[in-house]
Each structure stands twice: as structure tokens, then as C-alpha cells.
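WARN retry 2 of 3 for item q-0093 after timeout on previous attempt; input resubmitted unchanged.
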Amino acid sequence: MENSSKGRTEKLVELAKVQGDFEAQVLKGMLEAEGIEVAVRTGVAPSILPFTVDGLGLVKIFVKESDLEAARVVMRENEEARSAAELELEGPASPDELAGPAEADDDPSA
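OK item q-0093 returned
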């Protein structure tokens, strides 16, 4: 029984600040999929200000202190996957880009 009450009273620490509820819910879902409990706090109701203006509308993500490092790993892995996906979306270079700058046609053997 003592373990269950400890889990409820364990200190929450701020993991991240994100822009808006959508980003917060995505991050929350990723963390919860890894078994990490998440608390979300915002000071502004989404129906009043659904975007961030000068720091207003920021959403804070909290996790248990004991889960902080695991949560950071999940965030880091997600960021790496996102970066790789963005590079992939850019697509392969065209043959012209691979060849580099065009050379002068001074070579008579060509």
C-alpha cells in the first residue's frame, strides 16, 4: 500500500513548455505510450486564446521526478525522428544538384 501512496505524492517537475494545447496533447500521448504519467497545466483557456502570443498560452508539461530522465529520452528520440523525417521529405537531390556546378565545355574530347 505504501508504494501506491508514494506514487501519488511524488514530486512533479516541469519537463517542457510547448505552444498550445495540440502540441501538449501530442507530447502527452507519446509519453503516456511509454508508461510515463503526465500532468498538463495552462493558464489560459483554449477557447479564449488558442495560440501563443508573447508567452501567453504556453502549456507546461510535468512528469514525476523519477520519470524525468526517461521522458527526456522520449522527447530526444522524437526530435531525432522528426528531423530525419523532415530530411526524407526534402527528397533526394536531383541529378543536376549531385553533379555540382556546370563546368565549361573546354574539353574537346567530350
